[in-house]
Write a sequence for this structure.
């Protein structure tokens, strides 16, 4: 035990002597990065969580077969080419080119797509408010 | 002496085969006992399993569809006949342009997809095979068991034309496809939707 500690100390000393940067600095930088990413992740899911439960939303999207008309990242077999792909939905400016993108607008669109866009082939799925909010929460995780 | 005999009786590969068989047996027993596979439709498939069975279905249909040539039969009468059959047999599970599926369908696993882009996913022969023979273990019936081949062909023609229909036209077709009752004698083909008139001209 003591010997190995000694060995480490020797190594450190060697590094300092040879000018190799102390990896403690690198480790610190890494830790800061990880924390920042983690925080960003928390912020993201917090915003989505306020609307609904994104995980329940993903299951609802699967069950409602949204993926047979839309390409949706993270949903199995969601490779439809009838409507627009829903990737990066959180940074989309307009919904269906008609409503400014906001959680309220998205929930309204999901609950009555044909009232927002007359003649829309996207069906009114009769989503409950809860379900629509969960689906919206999932879509807002797509940055 | 003893151990060298053992070594001759159990060369590495034999031992390997034995282990593999044992593992397969244990796996099979666990599977059949229901301990490691949940058949309830309320829980999702694992991503890998869903991917694997879907891919198998696609390849199976492709493999078996190829041989017979199915001429495009987009005649006006067959499209209307297909629309009526679609409204009767399919719309509850697969919906249509602007028309949601029946509410209970979202509780199915796998859940039936909307078919608006199926003509870009499948060839005519593949669609015929799918509708005629269904899909095992999914809830997609083999319609060829109860419908004449001509009706299947008409349904496929209709499915191929479906993306060209507006929700209003689709709703009108469904209305027409309802079985005629004495007080509302709506016959199929009484009113010809514009989309079909253009589709009926031979190209």
């Amino acid at each position: 035990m003591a010997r190995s500690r000694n060995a480490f100390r020797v190594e450190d000393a060697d590094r300092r002597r040879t000018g190799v940067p102390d990896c403690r600095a690198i480790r610190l930088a890494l830790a800061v990065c990880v924390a920042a990413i983690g925080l960003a992740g928390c912020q993201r899911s917090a915003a989505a969580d306020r609307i609904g439960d994104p995980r329940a939303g993903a299951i609802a999207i699967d069950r409602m077969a949204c993926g047979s008309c839309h390409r949706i990242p993270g949903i199995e077999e969601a490779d439809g080419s009838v409507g627009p792909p829903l990737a990066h939905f959180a940074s989309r400016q307009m919904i269906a080119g008609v409503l400014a993108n906001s959680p309220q607008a998205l929930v309204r669109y999901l609950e009555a797509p044909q009232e927002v866009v007359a003649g829309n082939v996207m069906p009114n799925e009769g989503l409950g408010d809860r379900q629509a909010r969960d689906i919206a929460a999932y879509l807002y995780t797509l940055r | 002496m003893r151990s060298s005999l053992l070594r001759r009786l159990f060369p590495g590969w034999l031992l390997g085969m034995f282990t593999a068989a044992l593992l397969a047996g244990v796996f099979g027993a666990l599977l059949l006992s229901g301990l490691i596979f949940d058949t309830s439709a309320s829980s999702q498939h694992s991503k890998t399993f869903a991917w694997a069975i879907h891919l198998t279905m696609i390849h199976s249909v492709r493999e078996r569809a190829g041989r017979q040539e199915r001429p495009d039969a987009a005649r006006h009468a067959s499209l209307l006949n297909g629309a009526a059959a679609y409204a009767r047999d399919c719309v509850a599970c697969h919906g249509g342009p602007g028309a949601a599926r029946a509410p209970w369908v979202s509780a199915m696993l796998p859940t039936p997809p909307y078919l608006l882009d199926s003509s870009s996913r499948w060839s005519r022969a593949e669609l015929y095979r799918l509708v005629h023979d269904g899909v095992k273990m999914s809830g997609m019936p083999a319609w060829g068991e109860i419908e004449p081949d001509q009706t299947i062909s008409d349904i496929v023609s209709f499915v191929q034309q479906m993306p060209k229909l507006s929700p209003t036209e689709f709703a009108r077709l469904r209305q027409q496809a309802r079985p005629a009752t004495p007080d509302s004698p709506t016959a199929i083909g009484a009113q010809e939707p514009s989309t079909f008139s253009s589709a009926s001209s031979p190209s």
Notes: Chain B has a mean pLDDT of 84. Chain B is about 55% helix and 0% strand. The domain at 47-178 of chain B is CATH 1.10.760.10 (Cytochrome Bc1 Complex; Chain D, domain 2).
